[in-house]
Specification:
By secondary structure, the chain is an alpha+beta fold. Helices cover 16% and strands 43% of the residues. It has a five-stranded antiparallel β-sheet with strand order 1-4-7-6-5, covered by helices on one side. It has a two-stranded antiparallel sheet with strand order 2-3. This is Phage tail protein.
């Protein structure tokens, strides 16, 4: 896949199965604050999408499937968003994500595990 193909098209990650049930989600909240001389602090959410979630997903699949997912994530290089249907999403619905961090582990010669952190992307 060339750089131009990645930039121009928003591809969808479609693993053969959903991630393992025990995924984690963690919000990052952006807040604007103003601190006054008397110690008073005033805060407000920073923008419409001030809460962004990161989700840590894992898949244990045949090596060929993990290779394909790894290649998909490498092609986006953590900078280009993609579509993915998270476990809580209704059939046919996807959300936009970035993935800047993932790892893989060998369970056996034919089975590998990929763990990835997907960050919501509002672009």
């Amino acid at each position: 896949m060339t750089y131009q193909e990645v930039v121009m098209v928003l591809h969808t990650l479609t693993p053969p199965t959903g991630p393992l049930i025990d995924y984690t989600s963690e919000p990052t909240v952006k807040v604007l604050t103003a601190e006054f001389g008397d110690g008073h602090i005033q805060a407000t959410p920073d923008g419409v999408n001030s809460v962004r979630y990161s989700h840590a997903f894992s898949w244990t699949l045949p090596k060929a499937d993990i290779d394909a997912m790894d290649d998909f994530l490498k092609a986006r290089a953590g900078a280009f968003p993609f579509l993915f249907r998270p476990p809580w999403g209704a059939a046919g619905t996807t959300q936009r994500f970035l993935c800047k961090k993932w790892s893989r582990a060998r369970v056996s010669p034919l089975i590998h595990t990929l763990t990835a952190t997907f960050e919501e992307d509002f672009g």
